[in-house]
């Protein structure tokens, strides 16, 4: 059997190496530090947490990332095991001692007889003599490799700048105020959700945007604005009516709740996933701080009780257009012996990156051994995340995202529809059953 080469010693690469080695494959893990450093890392340790020390909610009944924690524990995740061993008090969240955590991950990998760590930069595409490769280089992919990926895929598939608009759970929108309609009834005529504002509401919104506290990125991130994706508050600074003549223009739409009154401005939300459970706020890319976004955007009619699957932002990042480029087992369609894993696939967050690394390692090991691995069900947290980055998301508007229940298919409900925590429990209960069935199938050799 040929060995598996993994580029990148972050959470995704470490998890992929662990899973492939546990499956019986020899693994070579390539990490460019300390020979080439990044602007974010502070040490040479594998699996260094460069930002927060939190893995977010550990509530497996009511939170999709908590459910993902549970699923990864059941899948023998090195990252979750190490996190559990080095957790620190954080209420309902899973937070870790960052140094102890990364030291634990590194020591486990170095002690594994099938894993070889090579400290070197892979300054281009994987060599032709690598039969199996996983690229898990994260949002700070080295420029030579990033440019090589861009050139090889033949399109602007690798972004270095995010202009991210918030995404809202459809079921949290108040449809006594909102309605479905496309401008001038184009397309299906109901492609957008619309929120009407009168002049007073619009002026109050503009005032809040201008006064809202902004995130000022670190110098190494930079914020080079493009005219086609300006932050909404920057547009507002150009004139009070700029938004009313731009993304919030009210033309071509009629409010069925009040058809005789023409709104001064209209906010539109566009479907963001194939399931129709998530909608992004069109033109609302922003550098407002997250708390300010929630406060200000909930002043919009229909979003008073909005739940956000993702908040907006503008920052440097590197990720491929995974829904267009990858197949359902994370292989590059034009070069199937290469897989991608972690944040470079467009998932967001420590846990999500490690989860995609876990699957990439298992997929690669199965393939190298001459078998195949059936993807986890989309009704599980890890399966929903995989589906999102490999085809469930819209390739034309694809942006990084955390796992959330909006990525799952709607559960079948009989009788009175459950909402809130009860509805989330329904998602989690279904996921546990379906994950158990999937694991049983794998144990029985079903592929």
Description:
- It is a single chain.
- By secondary structure, the protein is of the alpha+beta class.
- It has 2 domains: 4-160 and 317-443, FAD/NAD(P)-binding domain (3-Layer(bba) Sandwich); 164-315, Elongation Factor Tu (Ef-tu), domain 3 (Beta Barrel), CATH 2.40.30.
- The protein contains 12 helices and 19 strands.
- It has helices spanning 11-22, 64-74, 78-85, 98-111, 143-153, 199-211, 232-237, 290-297, 322-325, 350-368, 381-392, 420-443, and strands at 4-7, 27-31, 54-57, 87-88, 93-96, 115-119, 132-135, 158-159, 162-164, 167-169, 179-180, 192-197, 265-271, 278-281, 308-310, 313-315, 319-320, 331-332, 335-340.
- Strands 6-2-1-7-19-18 form a 6-stranded mixed beta sheet, covered by helices on one side.
- A hairpin with a 4-residue loop joins strand 4 and strand 5 (93-96).
- The longest helix is centred in the C-terminal third of the chain and has 24 residues, at 420-443.
Summarize this structure briefly.
This protein is of the alpha+beta class and 447 residues long. The chain has helices spanning 11-22, 64-74, 78-85, 98-111, 143-153, 199-211, 232-237, 290-297, 322-325, 350-368, 381-392, 420-443, and strands at 4-7, 27-31, 54-57, 87-88, 93-96, 115-119, 132-135, 158-159, 162-164, 167-169, 179-180, 192-197, 265-271, 278-281, 308-310, 313-315, 319-320, 331-332, 335-340.
Give the CATH superfamily of the largest domain: FAD/NAD(P)-binding domain
Judging by the overall fold, what is the CATH architecture of the largest domain? 3-Layer(bba) Sandwich
What is the CATH top level name of the largest domain? Alpha Beta
Low-confidence stretches: 219-224
**Structural class of the helix and strand makeup?**
alpha+beta
Helix content: 25-40%
Average per-residue pLDDT, rounded, comes to: 90
Count the beta strands.
19
Number of helices: 12
Radius of gyration: 23 Å
Number of domains: 2
Strand order of the largest sheet: 6-2-1-7-19-18
General shape: globular
> What's the N-to-C terminus distance?
20 Å
Query: Which sheet architecture does the biggest sheet show?
Result: 6 strands, mixed
